[in-house]
Amino acid sequence: MASKQLKEFTVEEVAKHNKEGDLWIVVDSRVYDVSRFANLHPGGAAVLLVDTIAGKDATNAFFGLHRQEVLYRPQYARLQVGTIQGQQPLIKPLAADEISQVPYAEPSWLSPGFSSPYYNESHRRFQKAMRRLVNEVILPEAIRCEENGKRISQEVMDKLGELNIIAMRLGPGKHLKGRTLLGGVITPEEYDHFHELIISSELGRCGTRGFIDGLFAGVVIGLPPLLNFGPPELQAKIVPDVLAGKKLICLAISEAFAGSDVGGMQTYAYKDGNEWVISGTKKWITNGTFADYFTVACKTEGGYTVILVPRCDGLSTKPIKTAYSSTAGTAFVTFDKVRVPVSNTLGKEGKGMSVILSNFNHERWMILVVSLSTQRLIVGECLKWSQQRQAFGKALSSQAVVRAKLAHMISRVESAQNWLENVTHQMNNMSYAEQSDKIAGTIALLKQYVTSTGRATAEDATQIFGGRSVTQSGMGKLIENYHRTSPYDAILGGAEDVMGDLGVRQALRKMPKNARL
Ligand code: HEM
User: Fold this and answer.
1) Which domain of life does this protein belong to (predicted)?
2) What's the chain's average pLDDT?
3) Which of 105, 300, 377, 475 could bridge 305 with an S-S bond, Cβ 3.0-4.6 Å?
């Protein structure tokens, strides 16, 4: 409702509307006629009729119980009949590409007055455009899909394909050549891992973990083996459609028999003439329910081989019900004597383990970037809530115990961000082979750090939000989602303990032979 069409009222005029059937309230200088709405109010009519609320300024009470978005929902926005004379609303939604002014709610490079050696103008342009895209296109879809558990709509997939978001999520490389990135905001030559970090960070801010996995996580991990090791004819057949969002691919490695212990897999392929015959099962396959193609790790004679399998006879998928939304498409995949041409082999026969391992650093980095960004979102939520929530007659933030929790939360997210930016800078300056040699262990340690601090922050946030932190709607909905889903980050792409161990083992391997105290 445009404010110029609204009447202005004095506080005294509003105060006259203070009874059942004639009930007004004020929230942040906006006057609402809730006379008829009172009986439909999800919080009940009685709470609106008490002396301190009916005909009064109920701003503090309102924001102690509702997210501001409630006021912008069309069915509630139309309850506004006017404004208070001489007052202006203070609380406004952020514009689609606006940066939050809440301290630590954004990484420091985005905060006014802060500088960073890592980001240039192209990153700033890119971030602004990406935030707008997330808020206008992706977040509404995320909220829908997270709730109904359905796959992302073809319309949104097409849009993201057109903007080359899917291609960019694979990182910098020749697959970006000649593409128009995010409507031309930057060139493929400019695109680096910090742009990619921005994509994953902006997505993480949706706070809808299942949806974020549904949003091409399978492509990010399932396509690189084809791009890096697949025969050109197979690439030509599959890659364009996948990058355009027309088809989905996923990575099928883990099994009920083998998770972090990849070598324990049992899915077996043998050759019959020009064909592979594959039998076995795969479990927890992200996007598997919807996928058109499967990048499958198989045991073969003398080793492991990675094979590209299209959805075909003998291959079936069924959804696995997990703690997060089925919009992620987490599947149990069965291969029953599935036949595919030998030309679908990715990399050398028997050398599949190096194909599998080559994928892991990038996957882990992507997971931790999304996870850290959501962790920061939670810090922002806790800062806001602890200021606006009154308990024992004062704001939560006036309790030392709450401030102590906030101190730990902020320190965790800031330390991880600084480490992440350092690692990303190294990625920008190393070949993938160098990264595997020099920073695979660091990425694993960073992932362990981000996921363990994320879960500590999720726990702290539940103490600050109380019952709301375990409620899927209302004030604590982002806390609830993060608390429920942050363990995923600590498992997917390598379990937290395994990550720590990998990091230390790599460090020990690199110890100089003559190192002594
Ligand atoms: C324009 C005015 C208001 C609108 C449109 C409104 C709308 C809503 C909605 C949609 C909910 C469901 C929960 C949510 O989505 O967050 C809710 C819950 C509630 N509302 Fe309101 N409300 C208004 C004013 C108030 C006021 C002034 C009070 C003051 C006491 C109040 C007390 C409550 C309570 C106690 C709940 C339940 C909260 C919970 O379950 O945690 N509401 N309201």
Assistant:
1) Eukaryota
2) 96
3) 300
CA distance 116 to 146: 35
Q: Ligand 1 in contact with 38 (CB < 6 A)?
A: no
- Which architecture characterizes domain 360-509 according to CATH? Up-down Bundle (1.20)
Pull the structure tokens for residue 362.
């990038």
Select the more confidently predicted residue: 379 or 260: 379
Read off the pLDDT of residues 277-309 as tens digits, 9 standing for 90 and up: 999 999 999 999 999 999 999 999 989 999 999
Each domain of the chain, given as residue ranges in start order, spans 3-84, 110-215, 247-350, 360-509
The answer to whether the pTM exceeds 0.90 is: yes
The residue whose C-alpha atom lies closest to atom 15 belonging to ligand 1 is 474
Q: What is the mean pLDDT of residues 463-467?
A: 97
Name the β-bridge partners of 18: 23
H/E stretch holding 131 reads helix 121-133
Q: What is the per-residue pLDDT for 261? A: 80
CATH for 110-215 is: 1.10.540
Closest ligand 1 atom to residue 80 Cα is 1
Tell me what the mean pLDDT of segment 439-468 comes to. 98
CATH architecture assigned to 247-350: Beta Barrel (2.40)
